[in-house]
């Protein structure tokens, strides 16, 4: 039989009714003859609720204890889904990340998967059971500590399990019917994209696309795992993520954005060799949600390091930077709140696309703060309060009056 790994996000399993809907979909796929592994996220807003609870109890919760707490959400969802399947006459068994053989490094709240040893999964599939796996979690094989994978962790779990069970297909079920040319909540006439290459999908995800996480796509590309992104609320075919097409020319695929970001800039004259690297490593350990975007060092020793992330993470860095950087050198840090990034993602992008996007922003009276241009992405920095207006303006410039059902992407 073919192996299918299905992943269901928090909105798909948000309550008893939704769990029963998912159970019926899983039962249908099993009846069609597939060996089935189902990866589940925590129900609805469970993870956020647990985080809130942790911060009500502790001003600065231990990351190890947070991992112990947050993994409970997926364990609840997996066991309830197994019960719903039992009621439909489908043999099913639920496993935690560690029981599934998902081995990670020891970075609590931001662990990376090192290996998946799916022995128990294979054994249960051979018995004809549906295997339900708790997403977002694993275990450090050296310390036996439970870990979580960070944002998008259940997507990454699903792809990693599919890679370990190859050949397998990974189906990501969410609350939208695939990847769109823009966020349909901001751009109502955004169109669904039938097919995306791994590289373009990765760029889209890393620059703010919320349907798939970048780590998940990168892992799929490395192991050539086919992905289908679909809605668990309808039967539309969704978006296929496949091998990158061999083609030349310019093509705009989508417009994405990251809103309400903070930018942290640390500048200093390092007191010793490698001190800037030590600062970068310390920040990555203490505030893993911040993304390192620049590290520049002048001949005279002056160093600048730039991170982008949530306002809360940047505030944490600002408050703790003196401790994180250690005693060496002279450093200062500044945090700018209220930034947003609107990106045009595509292939072969250049000056004509920059001109078109900038003209659209000018017509919409959105001030442009900065631009970074590459052949696969044009990244425009604007003020957070202008982000949605900028998305609509730029999307309209590249997807004007697109007909219903027309293939996404425009040549320019």
TrEMBL record:
Q: Which UniProt keywords apply?
A: Amino-acid biosynthesis, ATP-binding, Kinase, Lysine biosynthesis, Nucleotide-binding, Transferase
Name of protein: Aspartokinase
EC no. given is: 2.7.2.4
- Which Pfam families does the entry link to? AA_kinase (PF00696)
Q: Tell me, what is one Gene Ontology molecular-function annotation carried by this entry?
A: aspartate kinase activity
Q: What is the lineage of its organism?
A: Bacteria, Candidatus Eiseniibacteriota
Q: Which GO terms describe its cellular component?
A: cytosol
Taxonomy, superkingdom: Bacteria
Q: Mind telling me which Gene3D superfamilies this protein's record contains?
A: 3.30.70.260, Acetylglutamate kinase-like
Organism from which the protein derives: Eiseniibacteriota bacterium
What InterPro entries does UniProt report for this protein, alphabetically? AceGlu_kinase-like_sf, AKii-LysC-BS, Asp/Glu/Uridylate_kinase, Asp_kin_monofn, Asp_kinase, Aspartate_kinase_CS
């Amino acid at each position: 039989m073919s192996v299918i790994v299905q992943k269901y996000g928090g909105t798909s399993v948000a309550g008893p009714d939704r769990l029963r809907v998912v159970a019926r979909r899983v039962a249908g796929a099993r009846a069609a003859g597939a060996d089935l592994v189902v990866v589940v996220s925590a129900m609805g807003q469970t993870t956020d609720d647990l985080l809130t609870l942790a911060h009500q109890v502790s001003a600065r919760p231990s990351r190890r204890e947070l991992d112990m707490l947050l993994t409970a959400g997926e364990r609840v969802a997996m066991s309830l889904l197994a019960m719903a399947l039992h009621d439909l006459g489908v043999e099913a068994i639920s496993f935690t990340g560690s029981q599934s053989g998902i081995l990670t490094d020891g970075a609590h709240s931001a662990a990376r998967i090192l290996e998946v040893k799916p022995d128990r999964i294979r054994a249960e599939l051979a018995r004809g059971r549906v295997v339900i796996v708790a997403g977002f979690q694993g275990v450090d094989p050296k310390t036996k500590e439970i870990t979580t994978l960070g944002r998008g962790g259940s997507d990454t779990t699903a792809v990693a399990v599919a890679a370990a069970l190859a050949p397998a297909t990974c189906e990501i079920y969410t609350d939208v019917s695939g990847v769109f040319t823009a966020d349909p909540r901001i751009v109502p006439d955004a169109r669904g994209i039938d097919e995306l290459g791994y590289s373009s999908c990765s760029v889209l995800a890393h620059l703010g696309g919320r349907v798939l996480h970048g780590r998940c796509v990168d892992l799929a590309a490395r192991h050539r795992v086919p992905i289908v992104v679909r809605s668990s609320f309808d039967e539309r075919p969704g978006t296929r993520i496949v091998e990158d097409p061999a083609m030349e020319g310019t093509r705009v695929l989508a417009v994405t954005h990251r809103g309400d970001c903070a930018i942290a800039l640390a500048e200093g004259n390092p007191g010793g060799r490698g001190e800037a690297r030590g600062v970068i490593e310390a920040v990555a350990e203490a505030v893993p949600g911040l993304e390192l975007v620049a590290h520049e060092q002048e001949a005279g020793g002056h160093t600048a390091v730039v991170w982008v992330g949530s306002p809360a993470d940047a505030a944490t860095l600002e408050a703790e930077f003196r401790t994180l950087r250690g005693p060496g050198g002279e450093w200062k840090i500044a945090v700018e709140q209220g930034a947003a990034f609107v990106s045009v993602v595509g292939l072969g992008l250049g000056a004509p696309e920059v001109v078109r996007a900038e003209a659209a922003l000018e017509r919409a009276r959105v001030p442009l703060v900065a631009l970074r241009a590459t052949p696969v992405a044009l990244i425009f920095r604007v003020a957070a309060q202008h982000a949605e207006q900028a998305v609509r303006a730029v999307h309209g410039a590249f997807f004007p009056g697109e007909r219903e059902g027309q293939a996404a992407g425009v040549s320019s």
